[in-house]
Amino acid sequence: MGTRVYLARLAGLPVFDPNGDRVGRVRDAVVRLRTTNRPPQIVGLVAEMALRRRIFLPIGRVTSMDAESVVLSTGTLNLRRFEKRPNELLALEDLLDRRITVVPEHGEGPDHTGIVVDIAMELNRNTEWLVTRVAVREHTGRLARRGHVYQADYERVRGLVGPADMQGTSNLLALLEQMRPADMANALQDLPDARRNEVAAALSDRKLADVLEELPEHDQVEILARLDRERAADVLERMDPDDAADLLAELPKAEQMVLLDLMEPEEAAPVRQLMNYRPGTAGSVMTSEPVILTPDTTVAEALARIRMPELHPVVAAQVFVARAPSATPTGKYLGMVHFQRLLREPPASIVGGLVDSGIDPLRTDTGLTEITRRMATYDLIAMPVVDSAHRLLGAVTVDDVLDHSLPRDWRDRDAHDDDEQVEA
């Protein structure tokens, strides 16, 4: 393990115990401030485990850190949710993107302003990890990212651990955007409200839509409320219609109407329809955009459709076959074909000859308990929803059922903490 480690480079690395079992991923480093003029001390790492739990790993437990992983020594892990103490900061959350001043060496020349892009810690003779160097992007008066990046000793940096009113978002965004939407949503929950809203607003419409789908309802509403209405409508357009409908349902009726009117009509239409169904029914939880094909579609064409990268895996796991038109509500629903069946058939075969029509589709008023029972009975990950004329309206997927069967606050980590210890 080297004696100098750059903290931003640790973000996202897997953490392993001595047996090679994965504990989680590094999300940040804990900086303890000193009452003296000595450099701040790195006292541990924050790791994210399964179920989005963030725990503290004392730096003394770390036996190696490299470009591939972090390895821990043998001992007990405290699984209590990590919380900052009054004299602590998080290196990446609190210090990255700070506007700082660098004084010249030996007091010669003018001061320079810049943006923090990374922080280095080094091991001293007392086996303490101290902040020793700061990577700074020179502020040029134009876009900060165009400035020269250089390193400065900690003693030359002013404003690193002061008030955060001059903290930007670009470098934290660069780290967050390497994460999956669910992990990014979890990271946003740990930020102070003002910082979280600022970072969320700086995301692209598509990325913000993906992240909102993974946040608790109260965080979704607050972030959306901080956007101007035109931007909020753009983000809602990029969410899955069922998720957009759920989010809008949390807003006052008047605000729902304003945002729906600002959305493109073809994007708002399925959302309006979903909001008309009774909560807790197939109509209210289904996605209105499953993969729908006409019976004369070839297997090769069907496989090309489900390979599209924007499709969620659970949606791409099967195709639904219906008479034209193929947009919901379709013509007569004929059946569905699982992707494994498609893989076993010649590319020139047509899907109309492969459909499984032996499972009765759901109606819009079918309740969640019945949906769950039927999906479990037939080992399905999605079921079609049809109207009285047997036209396909959408599909209920297993993630739709889980989202609405779990406790309402299941995405909110604060509601599900407990204290545990395990041997690593």
From TrEMBL:
Residues 286-357 form the CBS domain. InterPro entries: CBS_dom, CBS_dom_sf, Mg_transptr_MgtE_intracell_dom, MgtE_N_sf, MgtE_transporter, PRC_barrel-like_sf, SH3_actinomycetes. The keyword Nuclease does not apply. GO terms for molecular function: magnesium ion transmembrane transporter activity. Keywords: CBS domain. GO terms for cellular component: membrane. The keyword Metal-binding does not apply. This is Putative magnesium transporter.
